[in-house]
Request: fold
Amino acid sequence: MSVPEKIQAPPAEQSDARWFVENVQSHQGSLKAYLHGAFPTVRDVDDVVQESLRRLWKARGTQRIASAKGFLFTVARRLVLDFLRRERRSPIVAVTDLDRVFVLDQAPNASQAASTAQDLDLLVEAIDSLPARCR
Reply:
């Protein structure tokens, strides 16, 4: 009579990875499609998806997630809304023609400032060397 082998549970890392593949990764395509359709002005949809996946993974470590798809879509929607709010407060305007952008820094650079200081010193010396009546 043989002794039945003891069945070991897979390591937690393997079960977490399996859960992620089965319950989360399958929704990436539909999440991207949703974000493109609902928020067409957002350029970095892939970044939003990646950040959503990261937050879901981090949350799973501390709480039970009943619906990975619902959690994922909710996190992504909130991330996009936060991004749109920030963009509305301080918009970044894309420049397509760099030749039309005129940027001029009017502050003197270090060499110009040193040269000007030397010129002033020479002028003061020249004036000081003049007779009192000419100064």
About this structure: The CA atoms of residues 23 and 103 lie 51 Å apart.
